[in-house]
Amino acid sequence: MAEARKSMIKIKPKKYKTGDIVKVDFIVIHPMDTGLKKDKKTGEVKPAHYIDNITFSFDGKPFTTMKVWETVSTNPYFSVNFKVPGKGKITVDYTDNTGEKNSKSKKLKPKD
């Protein structure tokens, strides 16, 4: 199994209460190769390697799903708004076109 890619979930603002709408940012280190570039050393075309599906979930229940295309930039940044229902865990799962799967989670701790 491939080593998990570095990724991060940020919640903004840092202080929030139950019922507040927060911004959930997800950043992942990924090449997002389109399959159109050539390797500078060999001259061979680099195969496509890009994230194609992302799911944002709260306590295991999906609240946003994204279909992603290869034209998204290297090390992509995704952002969604989310109404905080209370304490729980946000998880972002993604797959890429090579079958790689990864997941990142962050606990939500509203200041009620």
What's the story with the biggest beta sheet?
4 strands, antiparallel
The chain-level structural class is mainly beta
What percent of residues adopt helix (DSSP H or I)?
A: under 10%
Specify the CATH class. Answer: Mainly Beta
The total of beta strands comes to: 7
Rounded to the nearest angstrom, the radius of gyration is: 16 Å
**What is the count of distinct domains?**
1
CATH topology group: Immunoglobulin-like
The number of helical segments is 0
Q: Between the first and last Cα atoms, what is the distance in angstroms?
A: 41 Å
Mean pLDDT equals 95
Shape designation: elongated
Write the element-wise H/E pattern from the N-terminal end onward.
EEEEEEE
- Side-by-side strand order of the widest sheet: 4-3-6-7
